[in-house]
Design goal:
Radius of gyration: 13 Å
Distance between the termini: 32 Å
Number of helices: 1
Strand content: over 45%
């Protein structure tokens, strides 16, 4: 069952659906949104991201990285989103 919550800042809405070692994260705001699909492997983490609101770049982004030290998907929805952003930021 997905959990939906409002983040402290305005119209941001976060929905996270977890199944085993996967998570579907949807972050939406009034003008668009971004979707992340996260797969937690034994030695790596895979992330597929797509920014629905970016008309200039209509392509998904894919990341497969060595599993970060201390990585866990057993965290709050907000902390999981922050961890995903951190991985994506380090790979750019």
């Amino acid at each position: 069952m997905p959990r939906t919550g409002r983040l402290p800042s305005g119209g941001l809405r976060l929905t996270v659906e977890r199944r085993g070692g996967t998570a579907l994260i949807e972050l939406s705001w009034p003008d668009g949104g971004e979707i992340f699909f996260v797969v937690d492997g034994e030695r790596s983490v895979g992330i597929m991201a797509f920014d629905e609101s970016d008309e200039s770049h209509r392509e998904p982004r894919a990341y497969v990285v060595p599993r970060p030290y201390g990585w866990s998907m057993d965290v709050t929805d907000e902390d999981l989103l922050l961890a995903v952003w951190q991985i994506m930021g380090e790979q750019r």
